[in-house]
Amino acid sequence: MNGKERILARVRRALADVPRDDRPYAQAVRRDYLRQHDERGAEDLVDLLAGNLADYRAVVHRCGAGELPGLIAHLLGERGAKSVLVPPGLDETWLADTDVRRVADRPESTPHELDRVDSVLTGCALAVAETGTIVLDGSPDQGRRRISLIPDHHICVVRVPDQVVPSVPQALERLVPGRPLTWISGPSATSDIELDRVEGVHGPRTLEVVLMSG
Predict the structure, then answer these.
(1) Which of 78, 83, 135, 154 counts the most CB atoms within 10 A of its CB?
(2) Closest of 109, 172, 118, 176 to residue 146, by C-alpha
(3) What InterPro entries does the database record attribute to this sequence (predicted)?
(4) Pairing mode of beta strands 197-199, 133-136
(5) Can you tell me the distance from the alpha carbon of 60 to that of 9, in angstroms, rounded to the nearest whole number?
(6) Model-level pTM?
């Protein structure tokens, strides 16, 4: 018996005296909660997202599609980045204005190799305005989950308003459960029992979110 079989056997023993509920799960769990807390237009939703991202200590930028390459070049230059990790499906025009060395997202890359990369640039699946949360799902413009967790500086581009949803329930309706979902609310941070905040423990120390319109 392997470890998985032992765990499942213990679960079955623990549930042995629990009556079987014939109702389907979807009917047994009430889902009459609010799907969003108020009605906002697209522009107000983007403003709400920007405010909540800033509350989480993300650095927020806004630009049009034509301004994006210049802004990304500025952000990488301001950071002093000499290398940027690039997912395979990222729009190549986003890096048209910079000559920073590009590092491919490769399955064989080790954590130590990824840690030596200065920055990572990705798109996103969507963003939740009410919580200031960015969601990645491993699509070609986002790459593997680890590339957004190991480098210390993450630039994430959100297409607004198309990729902005008001609430978590509405986000779940648009996401594919089988994909590797990463939910990001600000840069990585944790605190000890005395509430001393430490950033960069299990993800990037600096998160820059670009809200790109058009």
Answers:
(1) 154
(2) 109
(3) FTHF_cligase-like_sf, LUD_dom, NagB/RpiA_transferase-like
(4) unpaired
(5) 49
(6) 0.82
How many other CB atoms are found less than 10 A from the CB of residue 97? 15
Classified as helix, coil or strand, 69 is: helix
pLDDT of res. 37: 76
Per-domain boundaries in the chain: 41-213
Three-class DSSP category at 161: coil
Question: Taking CA 66 as the corner, what is the angle to CA 163 and CA 80, rounded to the nearest 5 degrees?
Answer: 90
Q: Which CATH class is domain 41-213?
A: alpha beta
Pairing of strands 182-184, 133-136: antiparallel
In the DSSP assignment, the letter for residue 189 is E
Q: What is the pLDDT of residues 45-88, one digit of tens each?
A: 999 999 999 999 999 999 999 999 999 999 999 999 999 999 99
- Which amino acid is residue 188, in one-letter code? S
Nearest CA to 208 out of 107, 74, 64, 41 is that of 74
Alpha helices in the chain (DSSP H): 3-14, 25-28, 42-55, 68-79, 111-115, 168-174
